[in-house]
Design goal:
Layout lengths: L4 E15 L14 E19 L7 E6 L2 E2 L4 H11 L9 E9 L10 H19 L5 H15 L11 E4 L13 E3 L12 E5 L10 H6 L7 H21 L2 H20 L10 H17 L4 E4 L5 E5 L4 H12 L8 E5 L5 E2 L1
Parallel strand pairs: 3-5
Antiparallel strand pairs: 1-2, 1-12, 2-5, 2-6, 3-4, 6-7, 8-10, 8-11, 9-10
The structure holds (3R)-3-hydroxy-3-methyl-5-(phosphonooxy)pentanoic acid (PMV).
(3R)-3-hydroxy-3-methyl-5-(phosphonooxy)pentanoic acid binds next to loops.
Keywords: ATP-binding, Lipid biosynthesis, Lipid metabolism, Lyase, Nucleotide-binding
Protein name: Diphosphomevalonate decarboxylase
Length: 347
């Protein structure tokens, strides 16, 4: 194949953190380790068209999102290229067209930065592999995650499947601050195909960008305690993943979500990113759990939407509850049914 021009395509999934990444050091190094479920249905599909160029003085690229040329996406991608070029110096030798689309609605309040940066990073490493065909599969995935991290921290957890750990943790072998790894230890079948129904409470764009959010952890009065707690919660999840103890799982996951929001509420400036309906939903979930005994819980990102997590075997009952009692709180009744998936795929 000619290296003068060509194209590579990848699809990368979104992910939902169980132990949250909130706070970072320089160069997108996380202040604490995090762990996430890789999702299956919420994905970004990206094709990178490349052609060799003469002039190597600057980056040369255009972005098309769902068929339309997007000037407003360029600064973010340019910043990404500037951060990664030292690791992929050939970037300046090519002219690019980036064609991207999401499988989920653009204005859903679902961040597409994880799947988007994941897919783009994979395309870049695919081009590198064309130049260096000896690159091993293991190195390929690590490098893609490493580059994705420089685009958006949580994007480094959107390469591998099932369960991904990002950030050095003394009890998780191979874990690194530089890239995400597939969770290396035993996982009980309770977590197989775990469901995530995403209730779209507020489809608007985020009030607080995540980079502003992470910075709020600098000089935060509770920062050190929070970072230590994330290490503890990840250590506690190890036996939970191995033994399938859903009661413990729920306690850790819900506490993580509320702590993330507690950090925002106790920073300066302070923010409340939950909406009244977020709380209504949480209370309904707690009531349902109490009355049915079913292991349903919630988690939150840095926004008002609620991720409802539950085992696949309880899907029929939980979906009925969601439709009867929770969908009324969603903007235009919109929600997304997702579940744990196996990671990015080359197309
Ligand atoms: O990847 P960022 O910089 O957009 O940060 C994401 C942070 C949370 O979604 C709130 C938590 C997480 O670990 O994904």
């Amino acid at each position: 194949e000619s290296m003068e021009h060509g194209s590579v395509s990848w699809e990368a999934p979104s992910n939902i953190a169980l132990v949250k990444y909130w706070g970072k050091k320089e160069h997108q190094i996380p202040a604490n380790p995090s762990v996430s479920f890789t999702l299956k249905n919420c994905r970004t599909i990206t094709r990178l068209d490349f052609s060799k160029k003469e002039n190597q003085s600057d980056f040369d690229f255009e972005i098309y999102f769902e068929g339309n040329k997007k000037e407003d996406f360029k600064p973010k991608i340019k910043t990404f290229f500037e951060r990664i070029v030292q690791y992929v110096p050939f970037l300046k030798e090519y002219k690019f067209e980036i064609h991207s689309e999401n499988t989920f609605p653009h204005s859903s309040g679902i961040a597409s930065s994880a799947s988007g940066m994941g897919a783009l990073a994979l395309c870049v490493v695919s081009l590198e592999k064309k130049l260096n065909p000896e690159m091993t599969e293991g190195f390929f995935r690590k490098k893609a995650s490493f580059l994705a991290r420089l685009g958006s921290g949580s994007a480094c957890r959107s390469i591998e499947g099932d369960i991904v750990v990002w950030g050095k943790h003394k009890e998780i072998q191979g874990s690194s601050d530089l890239f995400g790894i597939k969770y290396p230890d035993e996982v009980h079948e309770n977590f197989k195909n775990y469901q995530d129904t995403i209730l779209l409470v507020d489809k608007g764009t985020k009030e607080v960008s995540s980079s502003v959010g992470h910075n709020l952890m600098h000089n935060h009065p509770f920062a050190e305690a929070r970072f230590a707690q994330a290490h503890e919660n990840l250590a506690k999840l190890k036996p939970v993943f191995a033994e399938g103890d859903l009661k413990q799982f729920i306690e850790i996951v819900e506490s993580e979500a509320l702590t993330l929001h507690a950090m925002m509420m106790s920073s300066r400036p302070y923010f409340i990113l939950m909406k009244p309906y977020t709380l209504e939903i949480i209370n309904k979930i707690w009531n349902f759990r109490k009355h049915t005994g079913l292991p349903v819980c919630f988690t939150l990102d840095a926004g008002a939407n609620v991720h409802v997590l539950y085992p696949e075997k309880d899907k029929v009952k939980v979906l009925e509850f969601i439709k009867n009692e929770l969908v009324a709180y969603c903007e235009n009744g919109h929600y997304i049914c997702d579940s744990v998936g196996d990671g990015a795929k080359q197309l």
